[in-house]
């Protein structure tokens, strides 16, 4: 190169890379391929290049020359930059989608259940996957009169904006219907009518429960195709409450029933979506029996403890990445102090 060495044509960063990587690679392997540098041109501009080089040695193995081929990499460098820009844009779009999904989901699910004198209430929710898509699970806890409270939990088929539309319709229709009737089967029937009128192809399963507080606490449960809530006795005994009716939004006249039981002090009622029992590890499901076994060990624990245990167990079963949304509501009658 006349009176200049190759490294003198490089930028300061390129000279450092030359000494720490390029030159040692040549000495060890005798060649280097597609090494990226920026060469400083006579006018001070920089030219991106790729360098292929071979180290020539004499008969004694001593290095005598380096033969290099230098290729203009301007277009390749711009292509790489475009790929990086596209990747950054995709990551930013995914982050915005996750934020939008979280915001929309938060509008459909209350952040914390209300404080109810005479009941211990807790709820938990975990979206499917990375949480970047709006799910179909929802729940609500609200007053319907003095010492009269409602709990609704449901699952709309599918995900995304379409499911969110039906989820919003279901949640607010239930509240409106509860103002007209205290009977769970009537509330669910009115919700079914609203879904049919909307004409959506998305159906949903919903369980609705009415809690009446007084000297004795009573719960009346109606289910529109949803998993029945589990009653956890103070002694750890587990049993279902209610009868499973017809999925909502499919037929004009669904079969819906009400079932009423009294709750004793220390007993808890656990509502859950299929994200719990259908949590999957390979071909193995978390299952109803595994859930009941877990709840039997939680007898006497607070509603918050039971909720956390169920959500954590379902997540751990599928290694922290749920395939479906998980929603859990626990209502417990605390023992007298």
Describe the structure.
There is one protein chain. The protein has a five-stranded antiparallel beta sheet. A five-stranded antiparallel beta sheet has the order 5-6-7-8-11. It has a three-stranded antiparallel beta sheet with strand order 1-2-3, sandwiched between helices. With 337 residues, it is an alpha+beta fold. It has seven helices and 15 strands. A hairpin with a 5-residue loop joins strand 9 (230-232) and strand 10 (238-240). The termini are far apart. The model has no long low-confidence stretch (mean pLDDT 88). Helix content is 35%, strand content 30%.
| Strand-residue proportion | 25-35%
Q: Which structural class do you get from the secondary structure elements?
A: alpha+beta
How many domains? The number is: 2
- What CATH architecture of the largest domain do you see? 4-Layer Sandwich
The strand order across the widest sheet is 4-15-12-9-10
CATH class of the largest domain: Alpha Beta
Note the total helix count. 7
- N→C terminal distance: 92 Å
Q: What keyword list fits this structure?
A:
337 residues, Phosphatase 2c, domain 1, five-stranded antiparallel β-sheet, alpha+beta, Beta-Lactamase
Summary?
With 337 residues, the chain is of the alpha+beta class.
Helix and strand topology:
Elements: H1 12-29, E1 31-40, E2 46-57, E3 63-72, H2 74-108, E4 120-126, E5 137-145, E6 148-156, H3 160-180, H4 184-198, E7 204-212, E8 217-224, E9 230-232, E10 238-240, E11 259-263, E12 268-272, H5 274-277, E13 280-281, E14 284-285, H6 287-296, H7 303-317, E15 326-332
Antiparallel strand pairs: 1-2, 2-3, 4-15, 5-6, 6-7, 7-8, 8-11, 9-10, 9-12, 12-15, 13-14
Helix pairs in contact: 2-3, 3-4
């Amino acid at each position: 190169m006349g009176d200049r060495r190759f490294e003198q044509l490089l930028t300061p960063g390129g000279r450092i890379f030359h000494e720490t990587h390029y030159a040692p690679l040549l000495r060890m392997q005798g060649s280097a391929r597609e090494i990226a540098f920026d060469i400083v041109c006579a006018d001070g501009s920089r030219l991106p290049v790729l360098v292929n080089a071979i180290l020539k040695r004499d008969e004694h193995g001593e290095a005598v020359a380096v033969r290099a081929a230098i290729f203009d990499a301007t277009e390749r460098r711009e292509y790489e930059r475009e790929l990086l820009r596209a990747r950054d844009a995709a990551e930013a779009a995914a982050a915005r989608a996750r934020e939008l999904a979280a915001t929309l989901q938060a509008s459909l699910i209350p952040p914390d259940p209300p404080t109810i004198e005479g009941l211990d209430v807790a709820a938990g929710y975990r979206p499917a996957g990375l949480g970047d898509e709006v799910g179909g699970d929802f729940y609500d806890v609200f007053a319907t009169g003095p010492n009269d409270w409602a709990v609704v939990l449901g699952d709309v088929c599918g995900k995304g904006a379409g499911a969110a539309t039906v989820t919003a319709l279901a949640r607010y229709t239930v509240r409106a219907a509860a103002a007209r009737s205290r009977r769970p089967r009537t509330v669910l029937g009115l919700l079914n009518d609203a879904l049919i009128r909307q004409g959506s192809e998305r159906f949903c399963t919903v369980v609705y429960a009415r809690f009446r507080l007084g000297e004795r606490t009573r719960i009346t449960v109606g289910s529109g195709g949803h998993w029945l809530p589990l009653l956890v006795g103070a002694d750890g005994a587990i049993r279902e409450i209610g009868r499973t009716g017809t999925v909502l939004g499919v037929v004009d006249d669904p079969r819906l029933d009400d079932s009423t039981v009294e709750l004793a002090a220390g007993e808890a009622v656990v509502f859950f979506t299929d994200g719990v029992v259908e949590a999957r590890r390979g071909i193995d499901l978390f299952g109803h029996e595994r859930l009941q076994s877990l709840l039997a060990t939680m007898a006497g624990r607070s509603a918050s403890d039971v909720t956390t245990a169920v959500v954590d167990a379902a997540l751990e079963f599928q290694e922290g990445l749920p395939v479906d949304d998980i929603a859990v509501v626990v209502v417990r009658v605390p023992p007298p102090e």
